[in-house]
Design the sequence.
């Protein structure tokens, strides 16, 4: 295959991105090739800016371009409530609901023995320090509803409860708008277990 | 949503790429954010190199980093045969079969009145000039098997035949490895029409 070397290299680089296979990488590369030079420049500038300007909040580990982040300094937010999530993108997901007005703590992952990620690889110390400082009434564990997230939640609950703080876990059940028929048994089990009085 | 501006901008830029929706753009942006700085730099360098070093062959319009391209200068290729395709990526698709050893001509699109693309927007003049120069025995029209590709093929055949060259069209039919049950009626019609003696 006689293909210009720079194009081959771009396809290779694009393939390193998550969810981008050989075919998509090729399509993206050809798009970049045909698109105006300014588009390519703007994309690169955006990539560089993210690498240069975005850091992690020293309080909650969320991504931010100011430290501490806007969530940690916003006086309108209730700092008695800390919502613990695995990744910065989870914060975005929760913010979209617009009904959580507390603070966050990003763990930067979940306990996963299979991937060799232990508690020491997560930002747990900072969370404990925040609770120990006082003023926190409830820690909501919003780690993922999977094995790793659940293990992390159990581990954190064990550390947090002795500090005298209320520890809660987000509800697991059948997703809204879905059909019971398509829910897996563990989800249905969780939904039954977590049933509420109407 | 309090999200660092550079991240929002990167997500926006990524969303401009074909086949990248809001969710994928977000996933890609977070990946870039977490990945090592060198990865981001290498990606940007690859994008810049493609924009700077890759041009179009002055003979066949295929993408290349040398002009004329490797296909047009390769003495091992049979220049009596020209395979006409819509886009440079189609050349890669045909090369993969490893059984075409002729030359190429890239039209840079197909006639599409709906998208306002007429014959004058395509690289047709160069193709006619190559045939008029002599030495070409067959032009294989490998434009896409859809309305635009078919219209383009018919249009080209009308221009090429008077020049005394053999004009052929790639076969349309049911794809190998597929199931007749899932083939649409036009494809089946084409497959029946193009049937061959066994």
Sequence:
């Amino acid at each position: 295959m006689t293909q210009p070397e720079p194009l081959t290299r771009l396809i290779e680089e694009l393939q390193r991105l998550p969810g981008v296979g050989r075919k998509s990488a090729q399509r993206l590369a050809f798009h970049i090739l045909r698109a105006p030079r300014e588009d390519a420049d703007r994309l690169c500038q955006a990539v560089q800016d993210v690498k240069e300007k975005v850091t992690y909040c020293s309080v909650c580990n969320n991504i931010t371009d100011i430290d501490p982040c806007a969530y940690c300094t916003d006086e309108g937010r209730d700092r008695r409530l800390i919502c613990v999530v695995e990744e910065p993108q989870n914060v975005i997901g929760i913010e979209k609901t617009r009904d959580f007005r507390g603070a966050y703590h990003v763990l930067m992952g979940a306990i996963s023995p299979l991937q060799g990620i232990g508690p020491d690889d997560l930002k747990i110390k900072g969370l404990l320090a925040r609770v120990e400082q006082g003023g926190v009434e409830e820690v909501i564990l919003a780690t993922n509803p999977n094995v790793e997230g659940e293990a992390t939640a159990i581990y954190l609950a064990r550390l947090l409860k002795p500090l005298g703080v209320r520890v809660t876990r987000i509800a697991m059940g059948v997703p809204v708008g879905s059909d019971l028929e398509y829910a897996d048994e563990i989800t249905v089990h969780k939904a039954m277990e977590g049933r509420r009085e109407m």
